[in-house]
Amino acid sequence: MTNIFAVILAAGKGTRMKSKLYKVLHPVCGKPMVEHVIDQISDLHTKKIVTIVGHGADEVKGYLGEKSVFALQEEQLGTAHAVMQAEEILGSEHGCTLVVCGDTPLIKSETMEALVNYHQKQNAKATILTGYTDAPDGYGRIIRNEDGMVERIVEHKDATAEERKVKEINTGTYCFDNRSLFEALKKVSNDNSQGEYYLPDVIEILKSAGEIVAAYQTEDFSETLGVNDRVALSQAEAIMQKRINRKHMQDGVTLISPQNTYIGSDVSIGADTVIYPGTIISGHTVIGRDCEIGPNSEISNCRIGDRTKVRQSVAADSEIGSGVNIGPFAHIRPASEIHDEVKVGNFVEIKKSVFGKGSKASHLSYIGDAEVGANVNIGCGSITVNYDGKNKHLTKIEDDVFIGCNSNLVAPVTVGKGAYVAAGSTITDDVPGEALSIARSRQVNKENYVQKLNFNK
Ligand code: UD1
Ligand code: CA
Fold first, then answer.
1. What is the pLDDT of residues 92-122, one digit of tens each?
2. What's the topology of domain 359-457?
3. CA dihedral sign, ordered 220, 226, 231, 233
4. May I ask the CATH architecture of the domain 261-352?
5. Rounded distance from Cα 103 to ligand 2 centre (Å)
6. Whole-prediction pTM value?
7. CA dist 72 → 90, 106, 174, 241, 290 (Å)
8. Is residue 50 within 8 Å of residue 86, measured between CB atoms?
9. Of all atoms in ligand 1, which is nearest to the CA of residue 224?
């Protein structure tokens, strides 16, 4: 089997994005464009992936980590110059080299695989992935001869009026014979309107040397969208969103309104779960089966069990069990661990807390830095007083505790197993198990007091 290598071009600044964030790091469905490209390429079992970095090199490396090796392009002198930076790493290898732009996040591994197969079947030294579009502006055009054979690629800026009418474009993805690529790159000049070394010029160079150059046209043009500005970024987002949602629906997830449901590319959802509109699920979230999520909920990096409901709520970086009821209007903040069959009701905020099996906080509570046992009932309006202005302290509420409404648990404090806290208490000392603790002043009724106040009458 032929070795496959890949070069990803990601050194450009992305001037047209008008952003402080480097272009290839702009996320599409929550993941940087260049990471989409690499993840798709990784499915091809490539022997080596080299990412060319320049602008924002450290950030790009930081994101991609182990997924790629890197070559630095200090000055951005064009796409051919960029590929040349991989010569030290790849120059002596034998095999096929895919070159893909870091700003084409929609290309699928299946398409790249088909490109490689076609390239091998044609016995070509270079095969261009081309697309056909009624809006070719900005793309390089594929120029074919009378026999329909590819001759060269002309950049939009260098094209004549006649050439600009061509609707077949260069997607910026190619498959090359590795050795021929690095040989041809040496002959590329920068004699063009942008004064850059263009990678597409390699096509004409190989062709003139009598080599076989082929073109493989994609069926699905939307895959090849190059993101140069925010308009294209939003188009890429919409296409990717559709693709992700479709996959979930095919896998048995109900999306009530797919066009109003935003699911990140690394999210997994079990069958028979229903997602209501206005819901954003992102990061490495895993949701089980038979759940109901939304409407209008935001879930990032959470692990959720089966049969759990999350309505009109926000949850981040937390573990949520099975048969849990969250919301409406609840907020689960990072590092929380909500066990099975818990209820977290209206206007309840939970932060960095464990909430044991079957426990409930049904209304208007703040539970922060707490360990709540099983079968605990936290009455309406009760809170943990976890912050003294400087430090955060732990509240421990053991199993089967009943916290009456509107109580303050001033941490550090422990309420022992099975204890009761009377409504309106401010608990500053530990409560022993099975005890009833009342920490409020007694009620005084001053008879006829109002008559005394109304002395003018
Ligand atoms: C490029 C192609 C064009 C094709 C289009 C498809 C060239 C000259 N043109 O144009 O034929 O239709 O992609 O989307 O190749 N980069 C570097 N170093 C550089 C210059 C660019 O790493 O010196 C990287 C960029 O970060 C980007 C990619 O190469 O990821 C493509 O560069 P870009 O400037 O976006 O090229 P286009 O004008 O889109
Ligand atoms: Ca581009």
1. 999 999 999 999 999 999 999 999 999 999 9
2. UDP N-Acetylglucosamine Acyltransferase; domain 1 (2.160.10)
3. positive
4. 3 Solenoid (2.160)
5. 6
6. 0.89
7. 14, 25, 21, 32, 48
8. yes
9. 14
